[in-house]
Design goal:
heterodimer; A: alpha/beta; Rossmann fold; five-stranded parallel β-sheet; about 40% helix; B: alpha/beta; 9 strands; flat; disordered C terminus
Chain lengths: ~290, ~325
């Protein structure tokens, strides 16, 4: 497969550098076994980008859901618009069938687009396929930052992720996987929280290490092919120089941070790289405070 | 390694799907990614599986990695097997009397024992977790979570109000226990809690693993010095109540002997000091719960009515946590 960069400069959905050789194999195994791929690693090392890139390379549909502390496992499967139902009741327009108030979630769209589309049409105009990728029978799903969810959420996902099957509580309707078109599900974790053993057992695990200097330069070159490697090297040195002597953060910027700083130097050409590098260091120190 | 029948089935499925039946190197790489063997010993040949599958982007040989698979995170039951820290405790034995003994003849012919392998440095045993490892996750999760309004509308509450003819003034949300508000972890470093130093560190790791590192604010405090607290060296600690107060919805978890153990020759906090501390802590509106490593019969009577204390012990269960919370009526909903 060719990795010639194309698209917008630094576009992480179209350019991705595998920082370890096991990455494509882990993706292949996840597709072959139907298991979710749990991708761990520090912030900015390319966990989420891997999902976007994989969807682009495979030409599959792409669904993304960023998990928050309020996310429940059910939200990924379906949502019930109770507020709309209440409004309909007030306006004497209440539909006796709950089906009119159910919106498919990303897992439903990924597992069975046909039934999700039918359900979306019953729900109404406000519900559209949230696909961010190509038009393809199969899909890649990114469940981003599973750590942010409450501890019960991974456990509540065991059945839909393990058997690709779930039942809608309100209507009793069953949603089952279109077996010929099983999705690839990527789940990212920063390792902020220990995930349940039962959940881990159902996943293929992949850990992305932060890349070293040479690999960072490779990544920069792939994303910005028209620029000399020395330029990126000088930027990295500027970031290192901008750090205070008592710096205890990561030795190098993450790939995401480096791409940001390169993009900034290209678009803000009136600012010096040193000034932008200082901003990167400040940003890193703030993230360190939050994490610590 | 994750050895299970499911994993073995995954292995065979992957080998068949990736066409690796006659490729031992690739079989081993697949086994490594699935966690069935420790490492992949050779660079992994990337082959597409279905359609345009990804392949390595780097033109040069990929870096050698020690393992494709992330080492499993430390489980509570496994923490006891982690590498131990060398002891800083040094001691000297002085022989008080040396009775005269005759050296027996046979001693001349006995070979000496080999020297200890580590240079004789003694390492203390790593303590087992004080909470039952099987239940610790659920115990901590139950103790720390707060009732929180979710995005889901509470239909039952609406039906209940409408059935009573009450107007719907606000849309009620379904309430569920959640850890999203975070935890302030107050770890006692006073003389009374000194015997539990290693246990405290273990519990800190467990709490961070359950609640998430980013949601745990760790402070150490010393009740014997006027309840000073802080994060860095003790010299920089200040009065706990002069520090920024945690948000009201945040649970405060106290890991302390709560004044149970009075250490001789130390300036222990008096029971009245503890009572004042707890009263001021609770006045802030936070839910406060204490893990105390002593039997309830030894807990200071003065604190029993005002502080929710849990025995930091193997016998503590999720049910006992729930009973305590129900008793103290603190399962109330956090205001949004």
């Amino acid at each position: 497969m060719s990795h010639e960069p194309h698209g917008e400069i630094g576009d992480t959905s179209k350019v991705y550098v595998y920082t370890k050789p096991e990455i494509p194999l882990a993706l292949d195994i996840a597709i072959a076994t139907g298991r979710p791929l749990l991708v761990g690693g520090p912030t900015g090392c390319g966990k989420s980008s891997l999902a976007r890139f994989t969807a682009t390379r495979l030409g599959w549909r792409f669904y993304e859901k960023t998990i928050t502390s309020m996310t429940q496992a059910r939200d990924l499967q379906w949502e019930v618009d109770h507020l709309r139902r209440l409004n309909d009741a007030q306006d004497q327009r209440l539909q006796s069938d709950y089906t009119h108030y159910i919106k498919p979630g990303v897992l439903w769209w990924a597992m069975n687009r046909t039934t999700a589309q039918e359900q979306a049409e019953v729900y109404g105009a406000a519900c559209k396929d949230p696909n961010l990728g190509a038009d393809h029978p199969r899909a890649v799903v990114l469940l981003d930052e599973i750590d942010k969810a409450d501890p019960d959420v991974p456990n509540n996902l065991l059945v839909p992720l393990g058997s690709f099957h779930f039942q809608i509580d309100e209507t009793g309707a069953e949603v089952a996987l279109d077996r010929e078109h099983s999705p690839l599900i990527l789940i990212t974790t920063n390792g902020e929280r220990e995930l349940p053993a039962a959940f881990l057992r159902r996943c293929i695990e992949l850990y992305l290490d932060p890349p070293g200097r040479e690999l960072l330069l490779d990544i920069a070159q792939k994303h910005f092919p028209g620029t000399a490697r020395d330029h990126f090297d000088a930027l990295l040195t500027a970031v290192e120089t901008a750090r205070p002597p008592d710096w205890t953060g990561p030795a190098l910027p993450s790939p995401a941070e480096l791409i940001d700083v390169i993009r900034a130097t290209k678009r803000l050409q009136d600012r010096s790289p040193a000034a932008i590098a200082k901003l990167v260091v400040w940003k890193q120190s703030q993230s360190g405070k939050v994490a610590g | 390694m994750r050895f299970s029948f499911d994993r073995v089935a995954d292995y065979f499925a992957a080998v068949a799907a990736l066409g690796a039946e006659n490729d031992p190197a690739r079989q081993r790489a697949i086994a490594a990614v699935l966690g069935l063997v420790e490492t992949a010993t050779e660079p992994i040949p990337a082959k597409p599986v279905t359609g345009p599958s990804p392949a390595p982007a780097l033109p040069k040989s990929p870096r050698e990695e020690s393992s494709a698979v992330r080492p499993p995170p430390a489980r509570s039951a496994e923490i006891s097997r982690q590498p131990r820290q060398p002891s800083r405790l040094q001691y000297t034995l002085t022989r008080l009397s040396s009775p005269a003994r005759t050296r027996p003849d046979w001693l001349e012919h006995v070979p000496p024992l080999p020297p200890p392998p580590s240079g004789g440095t003694a390492t203390p045993p790593v303590p087992l977790p004080l909470l039952a490892p099987r239940w610790s996750r659920a115990i901590l999760s139950t103790a720390m979570s707060r009732e929180t309004a979710t995005n889901t509308i509470d239909i039952d509450a609406i039906v209940r109000d409408l059935a009573r003819g009450l107007p719907l003034r606000a849309v009620p949300r379904r309430v569920m226990p959640a850890l999203s508000h975070g935890v302030q972890l107050l770890v006692d470093r006073g003389p009374g809690a000194a015997p539990f130093l290693a246990d405290q560190e273990l519990l800190i790791r467990q709490i961070r693993a359950v609640a998430g590192r980013d949601r745990v604010q760790l402070l150490r405090f010393d009740p014997s010095r006027g309840f000073i607290a802080g994060t860095g060296p003790r010299t920089r600690w200040r009065d706990y109540f002069s520090l920024p107060a945690p948000p009201p919805a945040m649970t405060v978890v106290l890991v302390s002997d709560a004044g149970t153990a009075a250490v001789p020759f130390e300036s222990n906090a008096l029971p009245a000091d503890w009572r004042d501390f707890v009263v001021r802590l609770r006045a802030r509106g936070n839910r406060v719960i204490a893990f105390v490593p002593y039997a309830p019969s030894r807990w200071p009577p003065m604190l029993r009515g005002i502080l929710g204390m849990l025995p930091w012990d193997r016998r503590t269960s999720v049910q006992s946590v729930r009973r305590l919370l129900a008793r103290r009526g603190r399962r109330r909903q956090v205001p949004p």
